[in-house]
Amino acid sequence: MNINYRIKTIVTTKGERLPMLVRSDGMPILEPTIFTLTEVRSRNRASNTIESYLRSVMVFLLFIDFKNINLEERLQDGHILSLAEIEELVEICRLPFVKIHFRLSEVQVLPKQIISPVFSIEKFRLRPANIGEIRINNFTAANRVRNIKDYLIWLCSVRTSKHGIDLTLRLSLESSIKYISNAIEARLPSGAYNASRIDKREGLEPEVVSRILKDINPQSQENPWIDEHSKYRNELIIYWLLNCGLRRGELLNIRISDLNFKKSTVRVVRRADDLSDPRLNQPKVKTRGREIPLSAGLIVKTNNYILDQRFNVRGAGKHDFLFVASDSGLPLSIPSLNKIFSVLKIKFPELAHRLFPHILRHTWNDNYSVEMDKNKVSEEQEKKSRSYLMGWSETSGTAAIYTRRHTRKKAHDASLELQKKMIQSNNDE
């Protein structure tokens, strides 16, 4: 079984990052490439979305390779997948990508006499193992399945649109489109449509934040990093995320020229397909551009980092991105930012399931809600100001995702107050 598929990203002359699904020899695979160009990229989808589609298609290709399915022959016959195959495919889509490779490879190396002629995902699922540790969340699995469904429907549609196609084949393919769509939708991982599945995270508690900031202080003996630049840079990154509620892409997209030290502000600017950005996986601003105020303390920390730390990193002077890699001076990449949080997870193992860059965006929103309550800002005004600072439209309902802790606390306090009044009322009687 050939599992040598990979995603390769190229940068076009206009700076566009274009992911492609290639074989082990580096050659693009024709149909997935045409699919993403005509069906995904043409709708102005971001490169990350294109890559998501291609990863889903890769899962499908691994599956049909293992099942020895000749897709071209199936298309010529007008029948793509059986119900049993669809069920197996959906089950495969629930596994982490590394597990898909491992599981399929695991079966491949077994002695021939004990290999079942029919690959049963169910047999693997029922083996003694902690299923909770090897499954991806239902929302991600459902997206993977839907992407594969879109690809299969496209494959059928391309053939039905060919001139001179046999009427019987056309009807069979059209029937397959409907059959595949209904069968897959009926087998999507449970809870995939539940709106609450998008993000059930809550921000970090104040005492947890204080503990983290204390230990990552560059002067602290508990600081988990060794070189001086990393200590100061990583502390500053945490302060930026906590103080501004930025996404990863927004943080890594900040240039020194975006900072206004006199006004104490920073511009969050959308720079899609930036030719001057050397990172292959370019961090992007997903939300609206905006200007954010910075506290005096954050401005001082940032200025000190630029002059005392960044200035001394070899290669950093070739560009003006704020955060740079300690070894090369190149703009800090998304994997490098994620690695910072991986180190923090080791440092604070009891918080490992909660420590990632986006959790600090939730934490900012919790803190913002508290400040709005203290200043008795109206609900409507709070919504508008929050939406502006987060880069959302004023009509966006996204705020509800980021205010869960504050909403829960207010409900908790209101409930206790109501109980207190009811008991007091009964006592008075």
How many strands, what sense, and barrel or not for the largest sheet? 3 strands, antiparallel
Indicate the mean pLDDT.
84
Our Rg estimate from Cα atoms comes to 26 Å
Distance between the termini: 80 Å
Please estimate the helix content: 40-55%
CATH class of the largest domain: Mainly Alpha
- Specify the CATH architecture of the largest domain: Orthogonal Bundle
Principal-axis shape = globular
**What do we call the CATH homologous superfamily of the largest domain?**
Intergrase catalytic core
Structural domains: how many: 2
Output the strand order for the largest sheet.
Answer: 3-4-5
Q: Structural class, from helix and strand content?
A: mainly alpha
| Count of discrete alpha- or pi-helical segments spanning 4 or more residues | 18
Order of helices and strands: EEHHHHHHHHHHHHEEEHHHHHH
Strand percentage lies at: 5-15%
Please provide a written account of the structure.
- This protein has about 425 residues and is mostly helical.
- It has 2 domains: about 5-195, no CATH class; about 200-429, hpI Integrase, Chain A, CATH 1.10.443.
- The chain is about 55% helix and about 5% strand.
- It is built from 18 helices and 5 strands.
- It has helices at about 30-40, 45-65, 70-75, 85-90, 95-110, 120-125, 130-135, 140-160, 165-185, 205-215, 230-245, 250, 295-310, 335-345, 360-375, 380-390, 400, 405-429, and strands at about 5-10, 15-20, 260, 265-270, 290-295.
- Strands 3-4-5 form a 3-stranded antiparallel β-sheet, with no helix packed on it.
- The longest helix is centred in the C-terminal third of the chain and has 25 residues, at about 405-429.
- The radius of gyration is 26 Å and the shape is globular.
- The chain starts with 5 loop residues before the first strand and ends with a helix.
